[in-house]
Design goal:
With 62 residues, the protein is mainly α. 92% of the residues lie in helices and 0% in strands.
């Protein structure tokens, strides 16, 4: 019974945090921060793709 109450409290806090984060993101969506985050994400994906591509190339050479 006690763990159930703790779980409900945790879920409520998590939901409130999620709503707050979404509100903040919505406010910055069209600003520089949104563009910066999108840029970081795409750079990460490009680096990841490049590293897998290089790994596959080196395997073919061997």
């Amino acid at each position: 019974m006690q763990t159930n109450m703790l779980y409900k409290m945790f879920v409520d806090i998590f939901k409130k945090m999620a709503v707050l984060i979404l509100k903040i993101i919505g406010r910055f969506e069209l600003s520089n921060l949104g563009a910066y985050l999108i840029n970081l994400k795409t750079q990460y994906h490009i680096k990841k793709m490049r590293s897998t591509f290089i790994n596959e190339q080196s395997r073919e050479i061997k």
